């Protein structure tokens, strides 16, 4: 009874401060939400313009002021991109999917095995070898294009998709990411399995590998996006149009004089973004969990 009647004492002060703090928190939350939504819409504007332009005639794409709602809607742009052309976008998609999927599977295999070896196996010079391997990431990839070109030409793999697949199978970043994931797991798991008679392969496949699935999902997304968006590799390694990947195939909408078929180019660009969006939406939980657990920002 005393605490409910007293308004000037400590209890009364606390009862007045709690609603104020709640109002401040709500106000802060609303302001942050408005700012985040505003920035999100700003980042989505280029994509919205690309989708809108993909449904316009070429003459309307760069009209001033820009028209966000196309009139008339040119669905024929997508029909032309996917069903016509020499070759069509379907061929480019097939090549990119082949290169990306095989590269991702190879990267996950080699990175997980190498990461486990550097994290859980004891051998002479392990840390020094890992540091040397990590130091190779300093070399810009552009410097390796000409040596890679000469190497694959001598192997007879030039002008083939394998010239794009093989370099993506071994990545320093993937090895580092998997090593950090394995180091974050308790070593007692492996020791208990070995006491029960499990061999090293079984410890790797049955004990440790299932626990880094979020990391593998994150690495798979990063590897897929990097392989899918690669332009320099196909530009150097491929000359047959039937083997072009999506980024290189989009250049066919630019003629010899520099003229751009904007409607067709935007339709192809929108189509090229869809697989990346699907992959991220399917594995976004694992991706976020991997970044949170590994401490990456």
Automatic annotation (TrEMBL):
<dbReference type="InterPro" id="IPR000515">
    <property type="entry name" value="MetI-like"/>
</dbReference>
<keyword id="KW-1003">Cell membrane</keyword>
<feature type="transmembrane region" description="Helical">
    <location>
        <begin position="97"/>
        <end position="118"/>
    </location>
</feature>
<comment type="similarity">
    <text>Belongs to the binding-protein-dependent transport system permease family.</text>
</comment>
<keyword id="KW-0472">Membrane</keyword>
<feature type="transmembrane region" description="Helical">
    <location>
        <begin position="130"/>
        <end position="149"/>
    </location>
</feature>
<keyword id="KW-1133">Transmembrane helix</keyword>
<feature type="transmembrane region" description="Helical">
    <location>
        <begin position="29"/>
        <end position="51"/>
    </location>
</feature>
<feature type="domain" description="ABC transmembrane type-1">
    <location>
        <begin position="93"/>
        <end position="283"/>
    </location>
</feature>
<keyword id="KW-0812">Transmembrane</keyword>
<feature type="transmembrane region" description="Helical">
    <location>
        <begin position="203"/>
        <end position="228"/>
    </location>
</feature>
<protein>
    <submittedName>
        <fullName>Carbohydrate ABC transporter permease</fullName>
    </submittedName>
</protein>
<feature type="transmembrane region" description="Helical">
    <location>
        <begin position="161"/>
        <end position="182"/>
    </location>
</feature>
<dbReference type="Pfam" id="PF00528">
    <property type="entry name" value="BPD_transp_1"/>
</dbReference>
<feature type="transmembrane region" description="Helical">
    <location>
        <begin position="260"/>
        <end position="283"/>
    </location>
</feature>
<dbReference type="GO" id="GO:0005886">
    <property type="term" value="C:plasma membrane"/>
</dbReference>
<dbReference type="InterPro" id="IPR035906">
    <property type="entry name" value="MetI-like_sf"/>
</dbReference>
<keyword id="KW-0813">Transport</keyword>
<dbReference type="GO" id="GO:0055085">
    <property type="term" value="P:transmembrane transport"/>
</dbReference>
């Amino acid at each position: 009874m005393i605490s409910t009647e007293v308004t000037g004492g400590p209890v009364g002060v606390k009862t007045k401060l709690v609603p104020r703090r709640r109002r401040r928190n709500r106000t802060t939350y609303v302001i942050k939400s408005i700012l985040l939504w505003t920035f999100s819409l700003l980042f989505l504007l280029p994509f919205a313009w690309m989708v809108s332009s993909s449904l316009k005639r070429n003459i309307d794409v760069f009209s001033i002021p820009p028209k966000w709602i196309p009139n008339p809607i040119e669905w024929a742009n997508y029909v032309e991109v996917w069903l016509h052309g020499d070759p069509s976008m379907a061929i480019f998609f097939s090549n990119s999917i082949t290169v990306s999927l095989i590269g991702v599977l190879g990267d996950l295999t080699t990175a997980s095995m190498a990461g486990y070896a550097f994290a859980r196996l004891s051998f002479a010079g392990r840390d020094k070898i890992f540091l040397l391997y990590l130091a190779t990431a300093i070399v810009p990839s552009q410097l390796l294009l000409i040596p890679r070109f000469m190497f694959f030409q001598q192997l007879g793999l030039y002008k083939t998709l394998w010239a794009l697949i093989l370099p993506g199978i071994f990545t320093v970043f993937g090895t580092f990411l998997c090593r950090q994931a394995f180091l974050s797991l308790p070593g007692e798991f492996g020791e208990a399995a070995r006491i029960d008679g499990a061999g090293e392969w079984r410890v790797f496949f049955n004990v440790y590998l299932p626990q880094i699935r979020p990391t593998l999902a994150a690495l798979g997304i990063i590897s897929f996006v990097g392989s899918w968006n690669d332009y320099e590799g196909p530009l150097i390694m491929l000359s047959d149009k039937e083997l072009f990947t999506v980024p290189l195939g989009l250049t066919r909408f630019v003629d010899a004089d520099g003229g751009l078929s904007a409607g067709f180019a935007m339709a192809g660009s929108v189509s090229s973004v869809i697989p990346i969006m699907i992959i991220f939406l399917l594995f976004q939980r694992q991706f976020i969990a991997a970044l949170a657990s590994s401490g990456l920002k």
